[in-house]
Amino acid sequence: MSRNLETRIERLETLAHDPLTDFFYDLTVRFAASQNMPAPQKQRSVGDALKQLSSYLPN
Asked: How many domains does the chain contain in total?
C-alpha cells in the first residue's frame, strides 16, 4: 500500500472519530430520546453537529 493511501485512510479514520463531534452527537441523541423524537444522523463536522443539536434542544 502506498504511503499516500495510508495517510489518507488514517485521516479519514480520524475524522470519523472526532471526540468533539461524538460528544455533540451523544447530547443530541439524549435530547431526541427525552422528547420521543427520532434519533439523528451522525454529522461529520462540529459545526453541523451543533446545528443539529440546536434543532433538538427544548424550547
From this structure: 1
